[in-house]
Design a protein that fits this description.
By secondary structure, the chain is an alpha/beta fold. Helix content is 43%, strand content 20%. The chain folds into four domains: 100 residues, OB fold (Dihydrolipoamide Acetyltransferase, E2P) (Beta Barrel), CATH 2.40.50; 154 residues, Hypothetical protein af1403, domain 2 (Rossmann fold, 3-Layer(aba) Sandwich), CATH 3.40.50; 75 residues; 44 residues, no CATH class. The chain has twelve helices and 13 strands. It is rod-shaped and about 165 Å long.
Length: 438
């Protein structure tokens, strides 16, 4: 320190180093990877594939181009149950998942959520290919769709016993149509074994024919969760089912091949229950309207029959009343005949007067001819007068009912008859009947 220099060194309290714990560091790395690779797709070759007793699968995914790179992978039981093929070493696959750290050993690993063979493309591409194939065969043709029973007695449902779907459908039916019985055909609705179980349940329902409508239901989920309802075996089983089928798979935005082949597609399982039967309130309202219409028709029919009965009663009155009515009718017609005769005579007299005037103008010869014609016409008119006929000794003979007697076949000994003369009516009794032949 001859030069008087002094070295100033930092104090320990002014500088502190950040020291990580192992768990904290590994956890921080895991969080960073989860944020950076939350969801990604990777392609490679399977190596060392194994499936544990727990159902989880473990393997290594090697680089598909032959580079010296690999990553450990874990596929848990739920995702493994959705596999549509059996993985094997050497297969080229495409994985969908996320990058994570296995903290107990600090190892990088890939958590697999779905796996498919690279050559098969995505699940949606498989969906489109199978849809086109079945559509070409006519399985989705609207002409083959069958109408549902309007008032089913029993409705069947193919679904899982452990899901909330069964409770929702049963509750909806109990509220909407409590008279309808719900029959359950239990089945798996997810996983590699679900298609076979669904086919067995649908075929059982078709064989038993216990229900009028069959519902196929499952709650919402991803395309992998609903993949069993895109299985060709399930689609063909629905098409072959002899019972009308309603598909209520997933939510409104979910679409499966089961929706296309079913006779009716419902947006949700609850909607499938509502569409499969009419509400009890609507049926009761319709029945009340029918009952009111029937009551009105019965009342109208009773009124009509009562009027007919009154008319029959009037026609079946006592004979004395009938004779009185006929006598009154005869008198009325006689008055009408007299009035008509007088009008006719007056008209003829006026016509004759006009003719006489014309005859006078034509000359004496014509007047004589007109007078002769007038006399003849007057005689003819007098001959038409019924009163003149009666004055010549004739009588109008009728029975007690007022019916005219024109033949001896209408008479019998002891019968009472009425004879209308020129100045009155006489009642006589037949003592003998002689025909013209006698």
């Amino acid at each position: 320190m001859a030069l008087g220099l002094r070295v100033v060194e930092p104090q320990e309290a002014e500088f502190q180093r950040l020291v990580w714990g192992v768990a904290a560091l590994v956890h921080a790395i895991s969080d960073t990877l989860a944020a950076r690779f939350a969801a990604c797709t990777v392609r490679g070759e399977l190596s060392g594939y194994s499936r544990a007793a727990s159902g989880h699968c473990y393997f290594t995914l090697k680089d598909a181009d032959g580079d010296a790179a690999a990553i450990r992978c874990a596929m848990f039981k739920r995702a493994a149950s959705l596999l549509q093929f059996t993985p094997a070493d050497g297969q080229q696959v495409q994985l969908r998942g996320r990058v994570a750290v296995y903290e107990p050993r600090g190892e990088l690993q890939f958590i697999v959520e779905s796996m498919q063979r690279s050559g098969d493309g995505s699940l949606y591409e498989q969906f489109l290919r199978l849809k086109h194939k079945l559509e070409t065969e006519g399985l989705f043709d609207p002409a083959r769709k069958r109408p549902l029973a309007q008032h089913p007695r029993r409705i069947g449902i193919v679904t899982s016993l452990g899901g909330a779907v069964l409770h929702d459908v049963a509750t909806s039916l109990a509220r909407r149509a409590p008279q309808v019985e719900l029959l359950v055909y239990p089945s798996l609705v997810q996983g590699s074994e679900a298609p076979a179980a669904l086919v067995a349940a649908i075929e059982l329902a078709g064989q038993r024919r216990d229900v009028d409508t069959l519902l196929i239901c499952r709650g919402g989920g991803s395309i992998e969760d609903l993949w069993a309802f895109n299985d060709e075996r399930v689609v063909r089983a629905i098409a072959a089912c002899p019972i009308p089928v309603v598909s209520g798979v997933g939510h409104e935005t979910d679409t499966t091949l089961a929706d296309f082949v079913a006779d009716l597609r419902a947006p949700t399982p609850t909607a499938a229950a509502e569409l499969s039967t009419a509400s009890r309130e609507a049926d009761l309202s319709a029945l009340e309207a029918l009952a009111a219409a029937l009551q009105r028709r019965v009342h109208r029919a009773l009124d009509t029959q009562a009027q007919r009965l009154d008319a029959l009663a009037m026609r079946s009155m006592r004979p004395v009343d009938a004779v009185r009515r006929q006598t009154q009718g005869l008198a009325l017609w006689s008055l009408r005949l007299d009035a008509a005769t007088q009008r006719l005579l007056a008209d003829r007299a006026q016509a004759l007067q006009r003719s006489a005037t014309r005859f006078q103008q034509a000359g004496a010869t014509s007047m004589q001819a007109a007078a002769r014609s007038l006399d003849r016409l007057d005689m003819r008119l007098r001959g038409l007068d019924p009163a003149q006929v009666l004055q010549r000794g004739y009588a109008w003979v009728s029975d007690e009912a007022g019916r005219p007697l024109v033949s001896t076949s209408q008479l019998s000994v002891g019968q009472s008859v009425r004879a209308v003369l020129s100045d009155g009516v006489a009642v006589a009794q037949v003592t003998s009947v002689t025909t013209s032949r006698d």
